[in-house]
Amino acid sequence: MRAPRPGEACPVCGLPIDWVEKRVRNGHVYYYAYHYVKDENGKRKVKKCYLGADRYDYVSRKNYDLGTAFRGMAYSEADRFSEYFNSALDKLSAKVQSGALEPEEARHWLGLLKDMNSRLERLMALLEDYLKELSKQAQASEAYTAGKELKASA
Protein backbone atom coordinates (compact mmCIF):
# COMPACT_ATOMS: atom_id res chain seq x y z
CA MET A 1 0.00 0.00 0.00
CA ARG A 2 1.14 3.50 -0.70
CA ALA A 3 0.01 7.05 -0.10
CA PRO A 4 -1.30 9.09 -3.06
CA ARG A 5 1.33 10.82 -5.17
CA PRO A 6 1.50 14.24 -6.79
CA GLY A 7 -0.59 14.37 -9.95
CA GLU A 8 -3.08 11.78 -8.72
CA ALA A 9 -6.66 12.71 -7.84
CA CYS A 10 -7.22 13.55 -4.19
CA PRO A 11 -9.49 10.94 -2.56
CA VAL A 12 -11.17 13.72 -0.55
CA CYS A 13 -11.93 16.43 -3.12
CA GLY A 14 -10.88 14.98 -6.48
CA LEU A 15 -8.43 17.76 -7.37
CA PRO A 16 -4.97 16.82 -8.65
CA ILE A 17 -2.53 16.54 -5.75
CA ASP A 18 0.41 18.94 -5.85
CA TRP A 19 2.18 17.42 -2.86
CA VAL A 20 1.55 15.09 0.08
CA GLU A 21 2.70 15.80 3.60
CA LYS A 22 3.28 13.13 6.22
CA ARG A 23 3.15 14.44 9.81
CA VAL A 24 4.16 12.52 12.91
CA ARG A 25 2.59 13.58 16.21
CA ASN A 26 2.96 11.63 19.43
CA GLY A 27 4.07 8.59 17.46
CA HIS A 28 1.04 8.70 15.13
CA VAL A 29 1.36 9.32 11.38
CA TYR A 30 -1.12 11.58 9.55
CA TYR A 31 -1.33 12.40 5.84
CA TYR A 32 -2.41 15.64 4.11
CA ALA A 33 -2.80 16.40 0.41
CA TYR A 34 -2.15 19.93 -0.84
CA HIS A 35 -3.55 21.58 -3.96
CA TYR A 36 -2.88 24.89 -5.66
CA VAL A 37 -6.21 26.58 -6.38
CA LYS A 38 -7.20 30.05 -7.55
CA ASP A 39 -9.52 32.21 -5.49
CA GLU A 40 -12.25 34.47 -6.90
CA ASN A 41 -9.59 37.10 -7.72
CA GLY A 42 -7.42 34.65 -9.61
CA LYS A 43 -4.83 34.60 -6.85
CA ARG A 44 -3.13 31.27 -6.24
CA LYS A 45 -3.83 29.73 -2.84
CA VAL A 46 -3.11 26.41 -1.19
CA LYS A 47 -5.94 24.05 -0.25
CA LYS A 48 -5.24 21.27 2.28
CA CYS A 49 -7.19 17.99 2.53
CA TYR A 50 -6.81 15.68 5.51
CA LEU A 51 -6.32 12.12 4.25
CA GLY A 52 -6.40 10.49 7.65
CA ALA A 53 -4.08 8.55 9.87
CA ASP A 54 -1.74 5.83 8.73
CA ARG A 55 -3.48 3.62 11.29
CA TYR A 56 -6.48 4.30 13.49
CA ASP A 57 -5.11 2.72 16.66
CA TYR A 58 -8.19 3.19 18.86
CA VAL A 59 -10.59 1.81 16.25
CA SER A 60 -8.22 -1.05 15.46
CA ARG A 61 -7.91 -1.95 19.16
CA LYS A 62 -11.69 -1.93 19.55
CA ASN A 63 -11.97 -4.29 16.55
CA TYR A 64 -9.03 -6.54 17.41
CA ASP A 65 -11.20 -9.60 16.78
CA LEU A 66 -11.11 -8.79 13.05
CA GLY A 67 -7.31 -8.86 13.11
CA THR A 68 -6.80 -5.71 11.08
CA ALA A 69 -5.46 -2.19 11.44
CA PHE A 70 -7.85 0.41 10.10
CA ARG A 71 -6.28 3.07 7.87
CA GLY A 72 -7.09 6.50 6.51
CA MET A 73 -7.78 7.68 2.96
CA ALA A 74 -4.08 8.05 2.26
CA TYR A 75 -4.42 4.47 1.06
CA SER A 76 -6.70 3.47 -1.81
CA GLU A 77 -10.09 2.02 -0.95
CA ALA A 78 -9.19 -1.15 -2.86
CA ASP A 79 -6.01 -1.61 -0.81
CA ARG A 80 -7.81 -0.88 2.47
CA PHE A 81 -10.66 -3.26 1.61
CA SER A 82 -8.23 -6.01 0.61
CA GLU A 83 -6.25 -5.61 3.84
CA TYR A 84 -9.39 -5.63 6.02
CA PHE A 85 -10.94 -8.58 4.18
CA ASN A 86 -7.78 -10.71 4.12
CA SER A 87 -6.95 -9.95 7.76
CA ALA A 88 -10.46 -10.95 8.86
CA LEU A 89 -10.26 -14.17 6.82
CA ASP A 90 -6.85 -15.00 8.32
CA LYS A 91 -8.21 -14.43 11.83
CA LEU A 92 -11.30 -16.58 11.14
CA SER A 93 -9.18 -19.36 9.60
CA ALA A 94 -6.98 -19.43 12.70
CA LYS A 95 -10.09 -19.71 14.93
CA VAL A 96 -11.42 -22.62 12.87
CA GLN A 97 -8.09 -24.44 12.79
CA SER A 98 -7.62 -24.04 16.55
CA GLY A 99 -11.15 -25.31 17.29
CA ALA A 100 -12.05 -22.04 19.03
CA LEU A 101 -15.27 -21.55 17.05
CA GLU A 102 -18.57 -22.72 18.55
CA PRO A 103 -20.81 -24.72 16.16
CA GLU A 104 -23.52 -22.03 16.06
CA GLU A 105 -20.94 -19.35 15.33
CA ALA A 106 -19.42 -21.56 12.61
CA ARG A 107 -22.87 -22.00 10.98
CA HIS A 108 -23.43 -18.24 11.14
CA TRP A 109 -20.06 -17.54 9.51
CA LEU A 110 -20.68 -20.17 6.84
CA GLY A 111 -24.01 -18.57 5.90
CA LEU A 112 -22.47 -15.09 5.76
CA LEU A 113 -19.50 -16.26 3.71
CA LYS A 114 -21.71 -18.10 1.21
CA ASP A 115 -23.76 -14.93 0.73
CA MET A 116 -20.61 -12.81 0.38
CA ASN A 117 -19.14 -15.32 -2.07
CA SER A 118 -22.25 -15.10 -4.24
CA ARG A 119 -22.10 -11.31 -4.19
CA LEU A 120 -18.36 -11.33 -4.94
CA GLU A 121 -18.89 -13.62 -7.93
CA ARG A 122 -21.55 -11.24 -9.31
CA LEU A 123 -19.25 -8.28 -8.75
CA MET A 124 -16.33 -10.03 -10.44
CA ALA A 125 -18.50 -10.80 -13.48
CA LEU A 126 -19.63 -7.16 -13.56
CA LEU A 127 -16.00 -5.96 -13.41
CA GLU A 128 -14.96 -8.38 -16.17
CA ASP A 129 -17.81 -7.12 -18.41
CA TYR A 130 -16.86 -3.53 -17.61
CA LEU A 131 -13.22 -4.13 -18.57
CA LYS A 132 -14.24 -5.89 -21.79
CA GLU A 133 -16.45 -2.93 -22.72
CA LEU A 134 -13.64 -0.46 -21.99
CA SER A 135 -11.29 -2.55 -24.14
CA LYS A 136 -13.80 -2.54 -27.02
CA GLN A 137 -14.18 1.24 -26.73
CA ALA A 138 -10.40 1.72 -26.73
CA GLN A 139 -10.03 -0.50 -29.80
CA ALA A 140 -12.80 1.37 -31.61
CA SER A 141 -11.16 4.69 -30.74
CA GLU A 142 -7.78 3.46 -31.99
CA ALA A 143 -9.35 2.21 -35.24
CA TYR A 144 -11.11 5.55 -35.74
CA THR A 145 -7.88 7.50 -35.11
CA ALA A 146 -5.94 5.22 -37.48
CA GLY A 147 -8.62 5.72 -40.16
CA LYS A 148 -8.44 9.51 -39.80
CA GLU A 149 -4.63 9.41 -40.08
CA LEU A 150 -4.84 7.29 -43.26
CA LYS A 151 -7.27 9.75 -44.84
CA ALA A 152 -5.10 12.71 -43.84
CA SER A 153 -1.95 11.17 -45.34
CA ALA A 154 -3.69 10.24 -48.61
> What fraction of the residues are assigned to beta strands by DSSP?
15-25%
**Strand-pairing-aware structural class:** alpha+beta
- Poorly predicted sequence stretches spanning 5 or more consecutive residues: none
Helix content: 40-55%
Outline: flat
Mean pLDDT: 91
Could you give the distance between the termini?
Answer: 50 Å
Total number of strands: 3
Number of helices: 3
State the oligomer.
single chain
Quick recap:
This protein is α+β, with helices and mostly antiparallel strands. 51% of the residues lie in helices and 18% in strands. The protein has helices spanning 57-62, 77-98, 103-153, and strands at residues 19-25, 28-38, 44-53.
Question: Which key features would you list for this structure?
Answer:
about 50% helix, about 150 residues, 3 strands, single chain, alpha+beta, 3 helices
